[in-house]
Each structure stands twice: as structure tokens, then as C-alpha cells.
Amino acid sequence: MFALLGISPQQLFQQLLVGLINGSFYALLSLGLSVIFGMLNIVNFAHGALYMMGAFAAYFLLNLLGLNYWFALVLAPLIVGAFGALLERVLLRRLAGLDPLYSLLLTFGLALVIQGLFQNFFGSSGLPYAMPSQLTGATNLGFMFLPIYRGWVVVFSAVVCFSTWFLIEKTRLGAYLRAATENPTLVRAFGINVPRMITLTYAFGIGLAALAGVLAAPIYQVRPAMGADIISVVFAVVVIGGMGSILGSIVTGFALGIIEGLTKVFYPEASNTVVFVIMAFVLLIRPAGLFGRTA
User: What's the pTM?
Assistant: First the structure.
């Protein structure tokens, strides 16, 4: 069958792996966007720039402080998340209650400023970031060689994504978060600091983007434009899955990564547009997205 299609099994499985890796980043980034929009009604266009900041945070931790990948995996999301909390307190809080278009315009401007500053200081070329020695090499699966680091990225991303879904949808903390967005007055009556919860939620969504940046650094190198390269696809993933749908972002992110990878095998010319074609069809059939709630 593979001979009839003009491809080898190794080529097919290799592209499936590439699709899963891309899908891991799509899922993590769209998850952060969905948490922020679903909980706070903020369209965060700066998400790609903050993903890039996560990669740069890992690079600085290694080259300035000598802290390796494993420390960066914990510290970079905390550092960039704290920066996100500052943005929410100083800028985005002023737009509370207004149309989401205002937050989109503000965060779009922030994305341009952040990317411009990093590009001015570090240029456009990529900076190398070595993968941890524990995850180098590849393992023979029989039908293909699986690079260990790439396998780690897929598994770790899936664990983080579904743990976040469980936290928000199945725990008391998640119930408080959802209630705080729908009826903040009632939640305040239980003694919960709603503004602080909103800030922490935004910081958590940004932390997910920074975590994706750390995972991506050894694969794609650290570049100021790395966020701009991926953010349009991530927004398409969010729209297809359903704005604010946590599960929709996860499932759609991984699925579209696989579809994109398969498209590169069977019809390479369409690989850069297949996600947007799917988005157009989904919006025509189900405007709220595959997992979105219809009014």
C-alpha cells in the first residue's frame, strides 16, 4: 500500500511524529489561551510573544546562572507567569468589563513591542539551546527510530494538558474559578479574593505558554520571531476547538498537528494552509467550534 502511495513507512511515521510534536505545542499554547479567554474573557494576542519569552528565560537561566533544562522547566514558567501577572494588574485590569476587542488590541500591541525589543537586542537568528543529556539519542521502535527528547515532549505535554483539564473541570478550585467569572459577587461572599484569583489565572495561562517555550527551545532554537510563527495557527486551533473550551483546545491541538503532519506526506503544498481550511469548514458548519457551547 505504501509503495502505491509513493511513500515509505518510515517517512509516514516520521511525519506523524513531527505532527505530534507540533500538536503538543499547539495544545499547550491553545490551552493557555482558552484558560485566559474562558475564565477572564481576554483575547490574549501576546501569547506567542510570551511563549518566546519562556524560551529566552530558559536560555538566560542556562547562560547567565548556569541552571540547566530541568530548573528552567520549573523556573521559566514562574518567571514569565509573574510578568504576566504584572501585565494583568497594570494594564489588562483597566479593560475589565469592556468588549474583548479592547484586550485583543492591547495584547496585539504588547506582542509587537515585546518581539521588537528582543529582536533589537538579540537579532533575528536563532540561539542554540542544548537538550538535556538524559534525553539525547534515539530508541529503535522497530518501524522507526524515535528521538527520546521528542517523545518526552509529546508525553509531558499531554500530561500537563490533561492535568490542567482535570484541575479546572473536576476540582473545587476549578469550580471557584468558573464561578468567579460568572458571578464574582457571590464568590466574594464566600471570602474569596476575586481580583487575586483573576491575576493568578492569567499568570497560569501565561505560564503554560512559557512552558511550551522551554520545551520548544532545544528543537526550534531560541528566536524572537518564534512566537509570531506559531500564534496564527494556535488561534485557529482555539477557534476550531471552541473559544474557551479546555478539552476542545487539547484534543484539537493534537489532532490538527497530526493532520498537518500527514498533509506534508500526501500533499505537501497544502500543509501550511490545511489548518485554516479546516477552520473555515468548522465555522460554516458549527460557528461555536467543535467543543464550544452554542447559545
Answer: 0.91
**Total domains in the fold of the chain:** 1
179 lies in some domain: yes
Look at residue 180 in the predicted model and tell me its pLDDT. 67
Q: What are phi and psi of 145, to 5 degrees?
A: -95, 125
In angstroms, rounded to a whole number, what is the distance separating the alpha carbons of residues 148 and 154?
10
Rounded-to-integer distance, Cα 85 and Cα 66, Å: 26
- Residue 105: inside a domain, yes or no? no
Distance CA 136, CA 139 (A): 10
Among the listed residues 48, 196, 57, 56, the one whose alpha carbon sits nearest the alpha carbon of residue 110: 48
Specify whether the CB–CB gap between 55 and 214 falls below 8 A.
yes
- What is the band of 181 on the pLDDT scale with cuts at 50, 70, 90? low
Given a contact cutoff of 8 angstroms between Cβ atoms, the answer to whether 28 and 234 are in contact is no
pLDDT digits (tens, 9 = 90+) for 113-130: 999 999 999 888 888 998
Asked if the structure places residue 112 within a domain, the reply is: no
Instruction: Report CA 178 to chain centroid distance, whole Å.
Output: 21
153-177 confidence digits (pLDDT tens): 999 999 999 999 998 888 887 777 7
Cell of 202: 492569567
Say how far apart CA 202 and CA 15 lie, in whole Å. 34
Distance of CA 25 to the CA centre of its chain: 5
Judge contact between 241 and 61, C-beta under 8 A.
no
142 lies in some domain: no
The C-alpha atoms of residue 97 and residue 99 are separated, in whole angstroms, by 7
Strand, helix or coil at 241?
helix
Measuring CA to CA, which residue among 222, 194, 259, 221 is closest to residue 23?
A: 259
